[in-house]
Specification:
With 131 residues, this protein is of the alpha+beta class. 28% of the residues lie in helices and 13% in strands. The two termini are 17 Å apart.
Length: 131
């Protein structure tokens, strides 16, 4: 195997696997501002948006609901994100999450799930501090 950890590359293939959770995943983090941007993009009422698409976490914080099928509620049947241009930072930053970049084995494990790891351009040095 090439040393994809020392010289990590990534290119999204649009497979949708990062939009599906595991049994422990309950929500996707988002800020109030991100929620409002998504709601406006969808052009739906606040009350309906919050009830249908978000989960309450701790009083005021909310997250995007993961459905019973363990998929983000905004992932359509063709594995396309319905809010791609307004998706939250958690989605935008994948797979550059600290827990994935924390070690060679974490990066390798994630590459089994994400077919885009090892493709495309080198990850910028600012993301490789812990590699």
């Amino acid at each position: 195997m090439p040393d994809s950890y020392r010289r990590p590359k990534f290119k999204c293939t649009g497979c949708g696997k990062c939009c599906t959770g595991n049994p422990r995943t309950r929500y996707i983090e988002l800020t109030t501002g991100e929620a409002e941007t998504i709601r406006r993009t969808l052009n739906i009422g606040r009350s309906w948006f919050y009830r249908r698409y978000l989960v309450m976490l701790d009083g005021q914080a909310r997250g995007i609901r993961i459905g019973e099928n363990k998929r983000c509620v905004f992932l359509d049947k063709k594995k396309a994100c319905r809010i791609y241009h307004t998706r939250p930072q958690q989605c935008r930053s994948y797979p550059f999450w600290p827990e994935i970049l924390s070690s060679r084995s974490a990066w390798k494990n994630e590459s089994r799930r994400c077919e885009g790891i090892g493709l495309g351009n080198l990850i910028a040095k600012k993301y490789r501090q812990n590699l």
